[in-house]
Amino acid sequence: MLKSIVFDWGERPEILAQKIKDTWRDYKVVHGTCKSFKGDGDCLRNFYDLVIEMLGDPANIAEDATLGNRDSQRSGQRWMEIRYDPDIPDAYRHSSNPQPLHTDGSYIPSFPDAAFIYCESAASLGGATVFLDSSCLENILTEKAPDLLNDLSNVSMIHARSGDMREAPVLEKSERGNRLHWNYYCVDKDASEDIQNLKERFYQFLLHEPEIKKNLIEVPLKSGDCVLWKDYETLHGRNGFDPKIRSERFLWKSAVQIECGV
């Protein structure tokens, strides 16, 4: 599920990109741990711009919570900030709350195979990104909630945001196994009562089932680190944290279709 890669800040970006490619087929989450980071935000941006360009085809699908309501936040940029800012309300990426498990591409039909984050500054305590393997999720549902698994696999659910829309089961069957499409807050608000009930059942299951919590993988990030994951094959979220200052936890997120990917 998880592969950790150690790299020196002085290494060329193509070295990190190749290390990622070498592990991408066999792991769903790749964590790049940066040794001896010395630099600033501009250095990181220049470095990781080159890394994702060497990995494959980056997607310019970033969103900006300050642009308007949830239907009009597409900025057209490559990177979007995930930064604690109490002045930006109703946005998980600017809050310090735990973030529920979800996929980034739930409502984007053309979402690439990899979501990518790099860390500019870390929370002093907490704030780790957490992941759940799709195969592990299916096993837990099989044992604990087979009726819920059946509904998630066979009932199409519409996710929509920022002008995008995808209709598919939460656990969509494919040749490689289930593909995940899930974000509680992006399920179509006009969906039927049955869909709304299914949404609530799955949300509560993820929130309260002990086996889910037991199988979460935590990836804490420090300045200079990165993490990327197969968005269709994992759920991810965030542990809560207790910030003392604005921007204490400051990450940048993008997405990229990796050339040697799935």
Structural description of this entry:
With 262 residues, this protein is α+β, with helices and mostly antiparallel strands. It has 2 domains: 2-132 and 217-258, Clavaminate synthase-like (Double-stranded beta-helix, 4-Layer Sandwich), CATH 3.60.130.10; 134-211, no CATH class. Helix content is 26%, strand content 29%. It has 6 helices and 15 strands. It has helices at 13-24, 41-55, 134-144, 146-154, 193-208, 210-214; strands at 2-8, 29-35, 56-58, 80-83, 99-102, 114-121, 129-133, 156-161, 164-169, 171-172, 179-180, 217-219, 226-230, 234-238, 250-258. The strands form 4 sheets. Strands 1, 2, 3, 4, 6, 13 and 15 form a 7-stranded mixed beta sheet that branches. Strand 8 (156-161) and strand 9 (164-169) form a beta hairpin. The longest helix is centred in the C-terminal third of the chain and has 16 residues, at 193-208. It is globular and about 55 Å long. It starts with a strand and ends with a strand. The mean pLDDT is 93.
Secondary structure elements and pairings:
Layout: E1 2-8, H1 13-24, E2 29-35, H2 41-55, E3 56-58, E4 80-83, E5 99-102, E6 114-121, E7 129-133, H3 134-144, H4 146-154, E8 156-161, E9 164-169, E10 171-172, E11 179-180, H5 193-208, H6 210-214, E12 217-219, E13 226-230, E14 234-238, E15 250-258
Parallel strand pairs: 1-2
Antiparallel strand pairs: 2-13, 3-15, 4-15, 5-14, 6-13, 6-15, 7-12, 7-14, 8-9, 10-11
Helix pairs in contact: 1-2, 3-4
